Amino acid sequence: MGSPSTGSAGAGAPAGPPRDLLLGGVIVVLGLTLVFWIIPAQVNDAGSFGLPPSLAPRVLAWGMVITGATLVAQNLRRAPSPDPLAGKLRWSDLGHLVLCVVSVAGMLTLMQIVGQAVSMPYAGFWVAAPLGLIAFTLIHTGAPLWAYAFNALVAPGAIYAGFWWGLDLPLP
Asked: Are 9 and 86 a contacting pair, CB within 8 Å?
């Protein structure tokens, strides 16, 4: 068995930091990038009434930072597992993470392109959100057909209604 200080699972096991520690770090970096760069660049709070349009995205981004930091902190002092692959980052995990990030980037790019093409900034949401949600369902395979229909029709409508009527905030 490996020593508790290194976190090694034993002879022949791949050495390296636990998967949750690395993913927590990625979540923290992404959350901070959203808070300090992406949200200020994409959401204009000038002239807003009541709550600023950037409030919900900033709260969610800070939530990402807090949960990512919690994940990192929980895995700094982790007892070694008897399973040699437990907590280790595998290539398939990195591929899954990259696929998710590329899906989000593609959805945001499509949202901007469609919004500019029809000269209506919020129109891109109605095209990109269903496609993005379907992409996430495909990434996490094994979903039944009703899940694709829900992601394409019900979820974007619920998000739209929640922002406009529930929060009195226009979509960013």
From this structure: yes
Tell me the pLDDT tens digit for each residue of 14-31.
445 677 888 888 999 999
87 touches 19 (CB < 8 A): yes
pLDDT tens figures, 110-160? 888 888 888 777 777 777 777 777 777 777 666 777 777 777 778 777 877
Query: What are the residues facing 88 on neighbouring strands?
Result: 18
DSSP one-letter string for 27-78: HHHHHHHIIIIIHHHH---TT--SS-TTHHHHHHHHHHHHHHHHHHHHHHTP
Q: Quote the CA–CA distance of 71 and 52 in Å, as a whole number.
A: 30
Q: Residue 83 in 3-state DSSP? A: coil
